[in-house]
Amino acid sequence: MYKTHTCGELRISDVGKTVTLAGWVHRYRDHGGIYFIDLRDRFGLTQVVINPEDSPELAKLVADVRVEWVLQVIGEVRARPADAKNPNLDTGDIEIYATEINVLNTCKPLPFSINKEENTDETLRLKYRFLDLRRERMQKNLILRHKIIKYMRDYLDAKDFLEIETPILFKTTPEGARDYLVPSRIYPGEFYALPQSPQQLKQLLQVAGVERYFQIARCFRDEDQRGDRQPEFTQLDLEMSFVERDDILDLMEDLFTKMCKDLVPQKKILFSPWPKLTYQEAMDRFGKDSPDLRFGMELVNISDLAKDCGFTVFESAIKDGGSVRGINAKTLGEYTRKQLDELTDQVKLWGGKGLAYVKISESGEESSPFKKFFSNEKWEELLKRMEAEKGDLLLFVADSKPAVVYDCLARLRVMLGDRLGLRDNNKLAFCWIVDFPLFEWSEEEQRWDATHHPFTRPKKEDFDLLSTDPGKVRGDQYDMVLNNYELASGSIRIHERWLQEKVFDLIGLPRDVARDRFHQIMDAFEYGAPPHGGIAPGIDRFVMLMADEPNIREVIAFPKNNAARDIMSGAPSPAMEGQLRELHIKVVYPEEEKKS
RNA sequence: GGGGGCGUGGUGUAGCGGCUAACAUGCGGCCCUGUCAAGGCCGAGAUCGCGGGUUCGAACCCCGUCGCUCCCGCCA
Fold first, then answer.
1. What is the 3-state secondary structure (H, E, C) of A226-266?
2. Which nucleotide comes closest to A225 if you measure CA to C1'?
3. Which nucleotides of B are covered by protein (CB under 7 A)?
4. Predicted complex ipTM
5. What stretch(es) of chain A map to CATH 3.30.930.10?
6. Closest protein residue to B1 using CA and C1' atoms?
7. What is the pLDDT of residues A491-520, one digit of tens each?
8. Which homologous superfamily is A12-105 in?
9. pLDDT in tens, A364-408
């Protein structure tokens, strides 16, 4: 080893020892003779002192040392003078009095600074990711990610789960997200697909009698990027046999609760046990199925009051099958016309037609463009239902499409929650969303579509509805939600062939296509498939939230950029002609495609 | 596929029609023996992403283009 101790472990009790440290020069200070070097490794910082009176050759060597050089330092641990201690450093009571220094490597001037936090263009950070990751913030994130994954492994191991790897080269399933394809050299014109998730395989493992499976699974989806999406991402993939919904929920709730308490003790879980909201309840109260439960400002339905009020905007929305709902933005009653206009513009950007408001000033004065349409009784009822008080701002969205009303108010709620400082990152509001509709009607395709995936089992009490009213069928599906983010999605699966076929029929998947793509799982269902279910929390997203990072690139060692490119290596890149020939592939560029 | 924002020394920013393009930090040199974001002095470093246009004059206005980023679509 190049070192006897790390740069983070020496204390006052080690004074007198001769030690060897190795690491990077975090900072150096030259006082015209006496030199200080803050030596850094993954474990901390230790101050090294070089005194030219005792060792003139050392001082000569050190004069050339620059930031991020790699040094090995041999010396004596000394207590610092009382007035020179540094309470900000774990090792601040001591310093190393150097007797020998070996330069293990030098370092060019940096493209950006490592020893201080500053905004840096992300392209540059990604290009020099190996330097970016040296920074304290990134090291913290890597460590936290490791701890979270280790916690999951240890916890599940203790619960008798088996970690089993499933293939990265598998079969394409064209529904859902686009697949990444891998050409086969041996079979011209045939392709593997990288898994969007190990869904079928983990179900097959249940048929195989594994009973409790998990995997830290890499998943691949060829879709456009977002701050919380990458072409490849990692899930805690999990599946169990002989379980019902609450068995899975209880297990996950226990794991995540303990994990948060142990790994991020500064963050407080607001509700225990976690609330369970039905999908419908989540929509009605918060306008979305991944609500932020850290604050109120819940949606209120005033459709009945607005129905015959005389205000055309409200009336026509309801007449055309929609609704009118509002939120009470507490304490914003003094918003100016300009600020309200900005909110309205925002709502229009989200697809809403506009925003109706009631301003109540601190003195109790009400102003609203639609008050004149309401009778006194109805107006009083409106204020009462909205729990309106002096200084409040009531905001309403009306639309013939219920989804638009939900969506606009949900976004508005989160936006105003931010402005009012109600979304404290040290509060964790976990909840479960249950009883999702199993199918939704696709206008585009004019058929029913699985909302989650086609393996989700319908709730038993809704079996009859499969034939009569598919839109009303609820799935035995559940989402884990934390602070406005969907963290995990799971379900009890279908384990009977007849039921699986029925669902495939309903979503308009022709029998022969179903057979081609899913024959392995359909066959398996006929060989004693046990009842089973599972869930898959997204690890990147969870680590991001625990690390208070704004996007998942900050918690992935080597992420792709927004255009799915790896800036560091340049991937994807053209393949050599020989490789393509071997793979029986001919590239047709978009321009040529247009011509033909 | 569509929309918004950004692009100025190595890095982070200012300048938004009239400059020799400013500041901080970093870099190089000199001074300084107890600092810890050390300090002081001096110096080098930018054809303002690229192309075109408007103008007497463009970093600044317009058009196009490229790159990054955020959002919509998309993500069973």
1. ECCECCEEEEEEEEEECCCHHHHHHHHHHHHHHHHHHHCCC
2. B75
3. 1, 10-13, 25-28, 31-39, 67-76
4. 0.91
5. 131-242+535-596
6. A224
7. 999 999 999 999 999 988 888 888 888 899
8. Nucleic acid-binding proteins (2.40.50.140)
9. 999 999 999 999 999 999 999 999 999 999 999 999 888 999 999
